[in-house]
Amino acid sequence: MVSAVLCDLQTWKIRNEIIFCGLAIGLYYMFREGNYKKALIGFIIPIIILWPLFYIRALGAGDIKLLAVLGIFYGYDTIPVFIPSAFVFGAILSILQLIHSGNLNVRLQYFYCYISKYVTTKKIIKYYNVDREGRKSVIHFSIAILLAHIFFLLQTG
After folding, report:
1. Binning pLDDT at 50, 70 and 90, where does residue 147 land?
2. What would the pLDDT profile of 93-121 be if each residue is shown by its tens digit?
3. How confident is the model at residue 137 (pLDDT cuts 50, 70, 90)?
4. At CA 6, angle to CA 93 and CA 79, rounded to 5?
5. How many other CB atoms are there within 10 angstroms of residue 79's CB atom?
6. C-alpha separations of 122 from 6, 25, 116, 118, 119 in Å
7. What is the pLDDT of residue 81?
8. Which residues are paired to 132 by β-bridges?
9. CA 3/CA 150 separation, integer angstroms
10. Alpha-carbon gap, residue 6 to 79, rounded angstroms
11. Residue of 66, 83, 75, 64 lying closest to 3 (CA atoms)
12. E strands, 2-153, in order
């Protein structure tokens, strides 16, 4: 998990090698415990749920794969905790980032226009433009996932 965050901080991507290591370790652990069905469903659900956010470029594929790997380790029944927690932490980090960059009003206006365009056209616009002002409006969502993971571990003891 930490290696994924460090890679994301350095390259803005989570390398597939890190995901594959997590996948292999998670599958080994779950097959050893006999929870392979719970693990495989836990892997698939985040991909299905979060794919629309990847489609519009609001979330990176590495972040989705990272949540899917956590789904392998903890099973599908943890998804109602992990995903919302990651988005709450992500929202907090985003607001702090936007305040720090002085970009909050611009991004809120862009978001409003994006949603308004969807409401009037009833079409999903494939590209949610995050690079209008460079990366100063973008967060490393892997940090939010790490915080959600820590939150989950603290809740489960």
Report:
1. very high
2. 988 988 887 877 877 887 788 788 888 88
3. low
4. 60
5. 19
6. 39, 43, 10, 5, 5
7. 84
8. 134
9. 15
10. 23
11. 66
12. 132-135
CB neighbours of residue 125 within 10 Å: 13
Amino acid at 27: L
The DSSP symbol for 59 reads S
Are residues 142 and 62 in contact, defined by beta-carbon separation less than 8 angstroms?
yes
Q: How far is CA 34 from CA 24, 29, 39, 66, 104, in A?
A: 15, 9, 9, 22, 48
Joined together, the tokens standing for residue 55 give 């489609």
Distances, alpha carbon 113 to alpha carbons 36, 109, 134, in Å:
44, 6, 19
Q: Which of 18, 91, 78 is nearest to 42 (CA)?
A: 78
pLDDT band at 51 (very low <50, low <70, confident <90, very high): very high
Distance CA 71, CA 128 (A): 27
